[in-house]
Amino acid sequence: MKKIITETKSLPEIYGDYCFDKTTLRQRVPKSVFKEFLEVQNGRKELTLSIAEVVANAMKDWAIEKGATHYTHWFQPLNGLTAEKHDSFVSPIGDGQIIMEFSGKELIKGESDASSFPSGGLRSTFEARGYTAWDTTSPAFLKDDNTGITLYIPTAFVAYTGEALDKKVPLLRSMNAIEKQALRILRILGNNTSKHITTCLGAEQEYFLVEKNLFNKRLDLAHTGRTLFGAKPAKSQELRSHYYGTIEERVAAFMRELDFELWRLGIPSKTKHNEVAPNQFELAPIYSTTNVATDQNQLVMDTINKMASRHDLVALLHEKPFADVNGSGKHNNWSLATDDGINLFEPGKNPKENAQFLIFIAAVIKAVDKYAPLLRLSTASASNDNRLGGHEAPPAIISIFLGDELETIFKKTDEKLKTRNKLEIGVDSLPKLPMDITDRNRTSPFAFTGNKFEFRMPGSSQSTSTPNVMLNTIMADVLKEFADELEGMEDKTKGIQKLVSKTYKEHKRIIFSGNGYGEEWVKEAEKRGLPNLKSTTDALGAYTTPETIELFGRHGVLSEGELISRYNIYAENYYTQIVTESTVMIKMAVQDIYPASNRYALELAEIIKKSSKILGEEFTVTQEELLAYILKNNAELYKSSKKLEEKLEELNNLENITLRVNFTKDELLPLMKKLRTHGDNLEGVVEHKMWPFPTYEELLFKL
Ligand code: ADP
Ligand code: MG
């Protein structure tokens, strides 16, 4: 059943209607409970059962008033999706009577059979129990779908032993780690008033839309989210006409409904526009704390899918649905903010603020340079491998764009120290930085954009958790080093000055303002000694190096076992995704392309035979060439399919996960490429009407 909105309510009435936010809680519980709950949220107090009892009751009443019948603990297992198990509020009291119940205990903790979620070896088979635990920092919300209205409670998901089986736990731990170290720096700088520091995230979401009935005709799209065959369209990517162009009416209707649903959930959807590629779009909500923004992004992806379907469209969140067309990313806008409203990446208005700004930026420079492989790793997947380094996408090399003004300032700190000139950060006033630094570099994977960093490598379909876990943890580590060094110093001003300058000097190789998409950069980066981890297979190993294990252990973000489990899960994801793609390719090649091409070849052979009788050979020689081209490509297509089939069998016999990953990259990917080439060659010449599935022309230029 399609539900088209007929809302006549105003936006302020709708906004957050389905979100159990702080305002709602305040209205529904005694003041003392509300105050204590805030302390729990801020990590200053342990959650007690009596507080949970009152909050649970308020939540239940609110949800039931809005028509809810069920509740669910909602969590983010390591498969990158979200999971839920619904229970109704109904509790029988005899005599056929019921009451609606939801206790504090049910709010705080749920037991879940963890065996159907990946644990990467963390959970032994005899202990399949997992627990979901209420995350008090992310608001509960309602979802209204065909099964009714359900109260969703954001939760963490942990094993019986307490190890993290999800994406939320490490994120929360990394936020604590960075807060702890950043507060030390603030104290060194003389700030004794800020009590809390939180990381912020604004996640820009890119996606494609395609016609549902066309999507259903393509096995590759339906099973893998991307096209595994597809010849280049006659009309190439029209940069200017689509980007920021007028939004087509049908898409506009979809977007309108999407916004409405998101606003109702309390997600501040802000911008929507056409992206560079045809049928590609972007949505960006206003940023919030990383934890909430990560939950919200999961809901954004989910809602995009649902709303598209209502409009007989399918949203493709895959990083590279179409070869040679722009891919989709998820720009990760990251910053640090104090509870009293200071953005730590904000250039200062006075010398003291400038010292703060420079030290935090210096920490980013060092962290990104020192731990570039971990940042690369945090975006690594089989699907993002297709995007990175391709059309209009960041390369796999990590570098930072600072902008001319800021780079000049750092250069100066370096020069002044060299010439023994005094540049006293905190005394000298630095040139004022314009708030809106306009010479942005769109080709940089990691760009400073005025008061935040925009990490552009994350893929459109991935959870925002892992990139932020990495960012927070590596930053915490460098801030710790800085604080350890500065805390013991007598003259802190001088210490900061030296530290900023030394850090810049030692790590400036990571700063690059040129064209990140160019070939020259690849060479230049190599000269600078920057890693270029092109494939997930090159990046994955970084999970389990002694340095990584120590780093994550030092800050209590992930234990060795948890890191190994992540390696296992992501390695398995990598090859299973490519195995699925191979299997689908073989099916399409053998059952669709091969017979269709043969039919066409047969028709062609007939006509050549007949016409050569009438016209003579000189007129048929080019047609014979065409026939030969088709027959040859089709034979090669078939041969490659069979070979790929054999390789899949071989892979199956490999025991070790690392062997499988490498085999996939070295043996499967080249064969898939070959198979595609023959398929696409055939698509270019076989009669259009005979082609067994919709082409790029239809998928990309019709809506
Ligand atoms: P772009 O030009 O890259 O599209 P926008 O101005 O649209 O950039 O902002 C992109 C995202 O960055 C939005 O989600 C926005 O809310 C977010 N953002 C803005 N300021 C911050 C900040 N201080 N920290 C984190 N994210 C921020
Ligand atoms: Mg952006």
From TrEMBL:
It comes from the Bacteria. It comes from Psychrilyobacter piezotolerans. Residues 178-593 form the GS catalytic domain. Pfam families: Gln-synt_C, Gln-synt_C-ter, GSIII_N. Coiled coil: none annotated. SUPFAM superfamilies: Glutamine synthetase/guanido kinase. Transmembrane segments: none annotated. This is Glutamine synthetase type III. Belongs to the glutamine synthetase family. Residues 69-162 form the GS beta-grasp domain.
